[in-house]
Amino acid sequence: AGQAVVSFAIRHLPAGENKMLQGRISRAQVFDRALSAKEIGLLYKAGGGGVPDEDVFARLEEKDQQKVLQIRSDIANIEHKRASLRPLSATTDPSKPWSEIARVLFMFKEFIYLR
After folding, report:
1. Ramachandran category for residue 64: left, alpha or beta (phi over 0 → left; psi -120 to 50 → alpha)
2. Where does 13-82 show beta strands of DSSP type E?
3. Which pick of 22, 41, 55, 68 has the fewest CB atoms within 10 Å?
4. Cα(39)–Cα(32) distance, rounded to whole angstroms?
5. pTM for the full model?
6. DSSP state of 65
């Protein structure tokens, strides 16, 4: 008590020069303890924080909208391919990938010529 400083729109104290942030604060809350990542996420969802993707998309220029649509299509294709991959069997030796990495590293030209 009596030693806390609550400041908004300041990168760090003391204020001045280029330490001030520009923007609008739509809502602020002060807590008497550090919040966990889960608590922060819940507060964000409850407060409706952020700008919806649809609003951002609507304000983009047409060429940027096309880029976004192409990227979304690429993501959907990759997700589809990922979903079609078979899972690793439970009998696969978990050390096998590491031994393969070690073999590949050992076979690099740089390692072959070292003595």
Report:
1. alpha
2. none
3. 22
4. 14
5. 0.39
6. H
